[in-house]
């Protein structure tokens, strides 16, 4: 009898493990491959987008005229419309790996008060909803329900990360915009240091033209990275109203001239140092952007080369 005790103990443990796994849906039927979680929507038919992410942040976006979008919550930040279109693409790409339960009590899975909630309101009225509840016992997955349905799905957190975006993810990332081939000069002043990049062959594309940096001749292949560094003055922080900053005597200034069909236009950019950032804006615009000070310094150092 004593010899049987270890075997009985192992059997009891195995039965207990099987019951626990079954009660947590470890043995639910798997689909052959991942399946579409939502009904595909046309981006042009979406009127409003609402996000409540796991950290409690809420973002609301509303379609304006044509393809433009505005942010109504948490603030009226400048919106990059392409980022909204990209988010809708990510929504359409949502998939699930398994159905956990049909006709479920949503509260059992934390879906009555979801930690994440995503809504798309269509122009013709319907509202599509994705609710994210508790995590599964299996790491990296969460319980999800769609619209008003009571079917619960297993969805990977990696998949959900495609729609779990913060307000700054929809924001325009910086003030600098230009057409490379139309640029004829860039003049910069930073901490008492000034230089100018000037295009010698004004009718040629930027990469094919000859340039001068200061008094030094430069090929287009060497001038283009300078312009790229200027264009790359972007932020990962939320923008602030330009009126928040006194730019009477800026720490940074740049004049960019573009020529098109014999007509030239110069755009002025100014910036103010604030810790490890430079708040940069285009004169006349409503928003300023926190650009890393190091990025500005690296651009200014191009004039030493």
Automatic annotation (TrEMBL):
Record-annotated DUF4340 domain positions: 69-234
Domain of life the protein comes from: Bacteria
Record-linked Pfam families: DUF4340 (PF14238)
UniProt cross-references to InterPro entries, sorted A to Z: DUF4340
The protein, known as: DUF4340 domain-containing protein
Organism: Gordoniibacillus kamchatkensis
């Amino acid at each position: 009898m004593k010899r049987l005790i270890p075997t009985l103990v192992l059997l009891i443990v195995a039965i207990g493990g099987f019951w626990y796994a079954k009660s947590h849906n470890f043995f639910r039927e798997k689909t052959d491959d991942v399946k579409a979680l939502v009904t595909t929507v046309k981006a042009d038919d979406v009127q409003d987008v609402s996000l409540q992410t796991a950290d409690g942040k809420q973002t609301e976006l509303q379609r304006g005229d044509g393809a433009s979008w505005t942010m109504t919550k948490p603030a009226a930040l400048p919106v990059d419309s392409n980022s909204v279109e990209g988010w809708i693409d990510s929504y359409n790409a949502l998939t699930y790996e398994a159905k956990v339960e049909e006709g479920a009590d949503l509260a059992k899975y934390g879906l009555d008060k979801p930690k994440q909630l995503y809504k798309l309101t269509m122009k013709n009225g319907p509202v599509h909803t994705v609710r994210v509840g508790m995590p599964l016992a299996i790491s990296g997955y969460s319980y999800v329900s769609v619209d008003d349905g009571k079917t619960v799905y297993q969805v990977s957190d990696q998949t959900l990360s495609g729609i779990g975006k913060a307000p700054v993810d929809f924001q325009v990332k910086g003030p600098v915009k230009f057409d490379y081939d139309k640029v004829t000069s860039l003049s910069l002043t930073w901490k008492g240091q000034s230089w100018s990049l000037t295009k010698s062959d004004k009718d040629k594309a930027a990469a094919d033209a000859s340039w001068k940096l200061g008094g030094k001749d430069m090929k287009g292949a060497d001038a283009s990275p300078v312009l790229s560094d200027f264009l790359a003055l972007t932020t990962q922080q939320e923008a602030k109203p330009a009126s928040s900053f006194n730019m009477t005597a800026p720490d940074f200034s740049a004049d960019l001239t573009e020529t098109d069909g014999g007509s030239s236009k110069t755009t002025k950019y100014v910036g103010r140092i604030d810790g490890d950032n430079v708040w940069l804006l285009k004169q006349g615009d409503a928003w300023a952007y926190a650009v890393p000070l190091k990025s500005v310094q690296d651009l200014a150092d191009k004039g030493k080369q």
